[in-house]
Amino acid sequence: MSRMSLSSLLPGMKVQRTVYGSRGEILIFKGGILTNAFIKKLEEHAIPFVYIDDGLEPDIQPRSSAGANLFKMNVQDVVAKETRVAAIRQVKNILLETKEAGRLVIEPQAVYSTVNQFTSELLSSKSLMVNLTDLRSQDDYTFAHSVNVCVLSLMTGITLGFNNEELANLGIGALLHDLGKVKIPDEILNKPGKLTREEYSTIQKHTTYGYNLILNSKNLDKTHALIAYQHHESYDGSGYPLGIKDDKFIEQAQIISIADKFDALTADRVYRRSFPPHEAYEMCAASGDYLFREHIVSAFLYNIAAYPSGSLVKLNNGYIAVVIDTPRGYSTFPRVNLLFDQNHRQLSTPKEISLAEAGSLFVTKVLTVEEIKALQQKIQGQ
Questions:
Q1: Closest CA to 79 of 135, 27, 34
Q2: Domains and CATH numbers, the chain
Q3: In what residue span(s) does the HD-GYP domain sit (predicted)?
Q4: What is the pLDDT of residues 130-143, one digit of tens each?
Q5: How far is CA 136 from the centre of its chain?
């Protein structure tokens, strides 16, 4: 399975995952075959990428039957797609209704129920965090981002040993952390170029706006307001709005801050392309005792796969492999299938190994799109 940008899609490709629009509506089902009309529809909905079967339709399949399935992976997520779609709709309704009313419009019990559902699914999941971005489009970024941050934050809270009440407060705070952006003009939020100093100052006010909106609501806890207020503060005091540092702000805000950073880095935005997960992982890892408290960074990264399932990677022995999955706590040492030797010769049978157990083997790089295409062409020529 490959994640392909819209510009790379061709008629005849088979969709590996159902594609949803910004309102949660289905644009094309899993297993559907792309046509020019479908591709145009995806463009109209600003869908940034689609998961595609690497084997095309039968008349254009690689001659090698092994090659047809070489890159396909069955990727599982830590929470059900249906749960996330419902949560995205919920966050969207809260933000849009709050923007229209000028005050927080929320049904607390419904939000608690959503967070509890996430927590239940996370506690029963044994897989790592993978593919949280597959429901995002440019149109619904803020809503899907809030849901992703919620899931990432809850995973971190579980690792840190939070009790049910603490997890509930953390999850609700995560869903509402960007609430104040409803008061920021869309032309600033969606500006494709660099912000001016005045525009950046306006953006920064969303933390104060969110704090006041939540605090003025009688239905939520002050912790939720503090999360909205403090989630851009940094451990070294370089954040905003107050520039406080060390332990002078709540732990939940720090958890949501690193989740916010990771999800933002791995998302396509109007002003930049996304960073690959392994680069976002490295940036977060380097921020301990600088932007974030070290124990929070460790707990967060414990649940993050630096190389998501389906990634094609090169090992230090020169072999090329596809990532199967990653055991929790071994973020940079996935379980892989070896596909090609150091001379790029395809192995007759893929060999499965665990880098966490192999000892001397590790990933040295993630293959580029060009390198992957070259391998696919090599398979098709066999």
A1: 135
A2: 2-61 (3.90.105.10), 81-301 (1.10.3210.10), 312-380 (no CATH)
A3: 120-316
A4: 545 454 555 577 89
A5: 9
pTM of this structure: 0.79
| Residues forming beta bridges with residue 187, ordered by sequence position | none
Question: What secondary structure letter does DSSP report for 33?
Answer: B
Q: Please list, in sequence order, all residues whose beta carbon lies within 8 angstroms of the beta carbon of residue 102, skipping any fewer than 6 positions away.
A: none
Nearest to 113 by CA among 144, 87, 95: 87
| Higher-confidence position of 70 and 308 | 308
3-state secondary structure string across 217-248? CCCCCHHHHHHHHHCCCCCCCCCCCCCCCCCC
For residue 100, give the H/E element and its range: helix 81-101
- For strand 2-5 and strand 363-366, is the pairing parallel, antiparallel, or unpaired? unpaired
**Edge to edge, what strands does the sheet with 320-325 contain?**
346-354, 335-340, 320-325, 312-315, 363-366
Decide: 39 and 348 in contact? Cβ < 8 Å.
no
Q: Give the amino acid at 136.
A: R
Summarize pLDDT for 15-36 with one digit per residue, the tens.
887 787 655 557 787 777 787 7
Q: Give the pLDDT confidence of 181-216 residue by residue, as tens digits.
A: 999 999 999 888 889 999 999 999 999 999 999 999
